[in-house]
Design brief:
The protein has 312 residues and is of the alpha/beta class. It folds into two domains: 124 residues, Alpha-Beta Complex (Nucleoside Triphosphate Pyrophosphohydrolase); 176 residues, Aldolase class I (TIM Barrel, Alpha-Beta Barrel). The protein is built from eight helices and 15 strands.
Length: 312
Amino acid sequence: MSFIQVAVGVIRQGDKVLVARRPDHVHQGGLLEFPGGKVEPGETTAQALDRELHEELGIRVAAEAISPLIGIRHDYGDKRVFLDVCLIDSYSGEPHGREGQPVFWLDIAALQDADFPAANRPIIRALRLPDRYLITGAAESPQSLLSRLEKVLNQHCLPLVVLRAPNLNDEDYVLLAASALTLCRRHDVRLMLHGNPQMLDRVPADGVHLPWRLAADLDDRPVRDNLLLGVSCHSIEQLQHASTLKADLATLSPVMPTQSHPEAPPIGWSGFETAVAQSHLPVYALGGLGEADITTARQHGGRGVAAISAWW
């Protein structure tokens, strides 16, 4: 059974997005959805979105107002769909339900998985995540790491930080994480710990990023739903395991050659896209990348880029 390509438009105004309610008599009836529809033969995603959103909502969308958010493949059993999901930040006209469907604006923070078809749920996660995040690099001491982190946050727009300090024991890491959390809160930046999820009992960070060696031994999600869970992955199989853990995000590496792991063969953008196409969660490209690669990562189905040396 082949995939049906569907163009999905996430129309955003600040912290709100436009959603519609599906009619009760159709597939997945009664649930909320983001507007869009099937891409017809010969159409681009942008052309399909402009046509569908005009038919459904009475608005027109220019190609330059459309940017990729995430690509999702989902098997409903009776049909398989590929959702080519795009962000739309500007349009002409006033959106209204031209087909009788109720449409309304919802806060992104208020979106609930249970209100949407299963295929739409990774969209909610992607909306709540930035297109870039920092993984901290090496430092001579915990204090020098904090100083470097403050300097980086002053210089770059990085909404999310993973505090990686593998040379510290658990006790010293917890002390470092408490200070890093205070610093990140001052900069309005979310902080994820790196390592054992139980450290969240001692440091109220925004989540935890699991190295693969820890994720591999887990069968269930180890943190509450209101916390972020990330997993470091290096293959399609590891991404699929991250999905079974109900992770909110994953990294896939190395995409390009890296100085830190020169022995690891890079998968390239083609390998990245192939792996991401078989996952069901937002995936960040990692390895030899930086801010200039964010658009490329999104064009290949990723949510964005995670990096160490590019910002550290």
